[in-house]
Amino acid sequence: MYKLQVYLPTEALRQVRKAIEKAGGGKVGNYTGCMSWWKVHSMWRSGDEAHPYMGKAGKRTETNEYILQCRVDEDHIHQVVEAIREAHPYEEPVIDVVRLREF
Q1: Measured distance CA(55)–CA(69) in Å, rounded
Q2: What does the pLDDT look like over 12-59, one tens digit per residue?
Q3: Which structural domain, as residue segments, surrounds residue 41?
Q4: Strand partners, 50
Q5: Angular region, 77: left φ>0, alpha ψ -120 to 50, beta rest
Q6: DSSP string covering 48-84, please?
Q7: Which of 7, 24, 44, 49 could form a disulfide with 94 if both were Cys (CB 3.0 to 4.6 A apart)?
Q8: CATH number of the domain bearing residue 26
């Protein structure tokens, strides 16, 4: 089992949630669509050769985003990460995947 976390612009929340669920993420026991998200304030500087979704290449950008988090089993982790990449509007989406230890 994995814990997956992704940063995304507020307007992409719904499409990324749908993509995760369709690819098999967010299942916990007999429950589906199990996800949490919260607002954060983020900052980055795009490289001169970047094609940023927001902001300008070579400049610092600050904005409000969401962090979305869910669990994904071994059988679906690669499909879920790929689905996020396809649904996510950022050129370089930040997707963190951590293997969970079972007790």
Answers
A1: 25
A2: 999 999 999 999 999 999 999 999 999 999 999 999 999 999 999 999
A3: 2-68+79-99
A4: none
A5: alpha
A6: TT---SSS-TTSEEEEEEEEEEEEE-TTTHHHHHHHH
A7: 7
A8: 3.30.70.120
